[in-house]
Amino acid sequence: MPRRFQYMSVPETPVMALTALISLPLPSSYMPLNLKELLDASLMPANSSEEELYVCYALAGDEGVLLPTEKNRRHEQGYCMIVPSRTPLFYLGGENTLTCLLFKNWNRAARPPHDFYNASLSLRQDVLKHIDHIASLINRSNSFHAAEAQQLFQQLYWQVVQGSELQDEGRNELHEAVEAAIVYMSRNYHQAISFSALAKQLGLPHWKFGAEFKKLTGKTPIDYLTALRIQLSKQQLQSALAIREVAQQAGFRDEFYFSRRFRQATGHSPTEYRASPADPPRIVCLQYAAELITLGVRPVATNLHMLDVLDEDDQDVVRIDYSATSEQIMQLAPTLIIYPSYMPLVRLGHLLHAAPCLTIDWEDDMYTRLRKLGAVLGRAKEGEAWIQSYEHLAQSWRHRLREQIGDGETAAAFIVHSGQLYVYTDHHAGHVLYYSLGFKQPAALKDLLRQTTGVKWIAIQPKQIGQFAGDRIFIVQPSDPQDVQQTERLMQSSYWRELEAVKQGRAYIVAESLMHYTPIIVEKLLGEIGQRLLSQQ
């Protein structure tokens, strides 16, 4: 009897080819990262522009977290994450090392099913040893060890993919819906909000949404929204606004309903509270301490990275870092937490029981941030007063420098950060150069800004610096020793020495401490640049 053969087709699967392994030092910072920009072009395959590149990365230390800005996920010590190399990321924390395994898909017929994988691998030491083993094989530079490195990488890749899919199966979609609702309330508290409509928009039954919301925050949605509105109205009651206006701006339908809910929450009427605040708001500010201080509001705590914008006598402000526990935050008894939009609430999940949270858009320019915070905290007049004062100061400097800055004169500012050269946009140093002093943007920078908004800098290669350099150039003196060396090498290179501004003595070094985009620091930077230009007359 003839033997029967059975044919079974096997689905095609992605086969990933490792092309480079890079370790990137991360300074103590809050910084945006674009891995494709950070990786030197010479390390990429020649045809990388035509193929989708991916990055598998792991953090070596436990001093920070890495956040994909388009995904509500976090990545920290003990995790491996796979994303397309174009994915924008944000790093928060102390000094760290980011290991990047750059790879492409050999089998174009079978693409990875998702753009994002994030898996907690059980033993961090095993993960790092696995990566170190791959690195050692690559360094031996022969075909046998290269093949073994590829095999080990395949194992790591599928381990991350399988672990991520298992975690996704158990991921709580209700939790994500609550986080989205909190962000929505933070941005729309001053308007009428229908929770049934919000739950429907989030694709949840009203009862299930309410139950999960209370489970995560300790409050019902209406109680959470009311608490947020009450805390903001406390700040606004310290202004000259009428009670009716405070009620309206805080989102209450009328002053009588506002007064009733305010008394229920505080034991005082709005008028009584205004006359003698019984419990002044206690704000934990996870980024915008300088804006609050400019408005005359003292936060009870702010993150470590904002220390340089605080005066030495601000010892009453508690310093916290991004790894602060819920117990540490609860001890501060906050009544409001203000955080930047780049920080997903998954990073703040343990704070949801502590106090209502208010988000401020990170992409906003300095004036917009100040006006928004002034409006919600009842300090609109103080915000406008500072803006007018700064504009007057800028006008004064333009008048003093009218002999130094010619019509149509261009300027640009550069910084080396984590080994990468950046050119500043119209934020940070750009705000002072272009808006305050009246310099024009170089044509190449102007073209880039038509395509990119809301970022403080754009990565470029050293050989491109001539395209972005203006009639005057400003280079930042970094604080990181490795970046200092990289900056020195740049300034010794022919790319730098051949710049016309360098030849004419119109290149200036500026301290990195003056590069924070806050009212306090921008005012100092304006004075520093003004004095430097004035001294050349």
TrEMBL record:
GO terms for biological process: iron coordination entity transport. Pfam families: HTH_18, Peripla_BP_2. One of its GO terms (cellular component) is outer membrane-bounded periplasmic space. It is found in: Cell envelope. One of its GO terms (molecular function) is DNA-binding transcription factor activity. PROSITE patterns: FE_B12_PBP, HTH_ARAC_FAMILY_1, HTH_ARAC_FAMILY_2. Keywords: DNA-binding, Signal, Transcription, Transcription regulation, Transport. Residues 282-537 form the Fe/B12 periplasmic-binding domain. Residues 179-276 form the HTH araC/xylS-type domain. The keyword Magnesium does not apply. Belongs to the bacterial solute-binding protein 8 family. This is HTH-type transcriptional activator Btr.
